[in-house]
Structures are given as structure tokens and as C-alpha cells.
Amino acid sequence: MLFDLYETCRRAQTSSVFGIADHFYPPLLVQEPEGWSSAKNRIAFVGQETLDWQFNALNAAKWKYAWDRADYLSLADFFNFGESVRDLMDGYRIFDFASFMPITHRSPFWRYFRDVKDVFCERGETASAIFTNVIRCAARHESGYTLWSMDRDMRRAYLDWQKGLLGAELRALAPTLIIFVSGPYYDGYLAEEFEGLEMTAVEPFGGRVLSRLHAPGLGEVPAYRTYHPAYLNRVKRFRFAPIEAAITDAER
Is 214 exposed, middle or buried (0-12, 13-18, 19+ CB in 10 A)? Predict the structure, then answer.
């Protein structure tokens, strides 16, 4: 199902987005981890955008993983190579949640990603976690990786192309809990993706720290938005507490 969804997205390229495709990294295409479909608790951990996300012989040599396919350096490569969906989904599997990148693996994002699953596993329940992003492709720009690095027209063309993909992806994955760790500055992108989005603060936190999300496109799955783990980890009064509060609220 995910393969068909991504292939439809690849073929839905417009002249506007194709014209700027060299200015973006390849898209993040997820693959269900082992045990996902059978787990009682399936957590979708949704970040901002994945920084230097590309698969090629140079990176394979650096990080010591096997890569015998085309080099994927940009969104244009995703559009142009006929096997790109299969290859990039395999790239997600090979990445294996930063398992071969020691420094990245210890970062707040990946520690909190593992901690979410551990909350359920420590109770003796089966759990699986998957990560995806609000923004599918990071920007390739000297000013940074975010869409804000791009001018308005390029940003608009890109957003028009990716619109609907995240919602469809989540519906295909059928998680039991969604945690957006994208922070309040990405709320506009969420509102564009999920029409009719409403956000309700979860006590004891204010809405910027932790909100429950309601939108037709999210269905009945408990969904929350909090800060990115890098920020949560810097603020001692937060740390993992907002995510724990989201889990508790979802079970009420």
C-alpha cells in the first residue's frame, strides 16, 4: 500500500515542482518495521524534515552500509529514476533509525523515539514505532535545510506537490498513537495538510508545549503536537514529560 502511494506521488510531479526539484533532497519514504502490523501499540513519531537525507556510494562507504543502486541526491532523482520508490524505501530500512550513526543515534530525537516505545514495552505490551516527517524533503540551500530557506514561490510549488501525502501515509500505516514533534512553528504546515485542524492544550502544559489535534484527516487516532526533542531536552522542566502526558491523555 505504501509503495503504491509513493509511486502515485512520484508520478504526480508538476512542471512547477519538477523545475525546482534539484533544490531539494530526496523524499523520506518510510517502510514498516518488523512487527509493526501485529503490535498492540503502533506509534507514529512525526518530525520536521530530515536533514542530509540522501543515499549514494559516498555515504555508503562513510557509514559502511551496502548500496548497489543509483545515487539519490535530490528530489529530481526521485522523479527521474524508475526504481526510486523501491530504492528509497529500502534506504529507510537500511538507515534503521540511525543505528549505524553513533552520534546521531544518541541525539534527543532518537532517544525520545526509543523512549516512546519503551513506555509500552516496560508494561509488557507489544509496541512498534515508525518515524516520518511533516516536510517530506529537506531544502538544499546554503541558508539551511528548512522550507523557510526557499523563496515563497518555490516553497508554494513544493507544498502543493506534497499536500495530502502525510495524511494518506498515516492512514495507510494505521498507527494507534501519533506524536508530532514538530514544534509550534510547523503548525501552519499541519493546518494545510489536515483541513479543519483544531488544537487543544493538554494540561498541565500550554498549547505551544503540548496540544491534542483534531481533524477529519486524522480520524479517531489520538494525535498530539509537542516541541522537537532537541528543544524539550534543553528545557529541564520539559524533557520527556510532555510526551508522557500525551500518552496518558490518549489512554483516558
Answer: middle
pTM above 0.90, yes or no: yes
Average pLDDT, integer, range 161-180: 98
Q: Which long-range contacts (CB under 8 A, 24 or more apart) does 206-212 make?
A: 208/184, 209/238, 209/242, 210/242, 210/245, 210/246, 212/246, 212/249
Instruction: Please report the pLDDT score of residue 249 as a whole number.
Output: 97
Helix-helix angle 108-121:241-250, to 10 degrees: 40
Give the Cα separation of 214 and 222 in Å (integer).
8
Domains and CATH numbers, the chain: 2-31+39-250 (3.40.470)
Q: Coil, helix or strand for 94?
A: helix
Nearest to 181 by CA among 123, 107, 120: 107
Give the pLDDT confidence score for residue 19 in this predicted structure.
94
Task: Tell me the chain's radius of gyration from C-alpha atoms.
Answer: 18
The tens digit of pLDDT for each residue in 96-115 reads 999 988 889 999 999 999 99
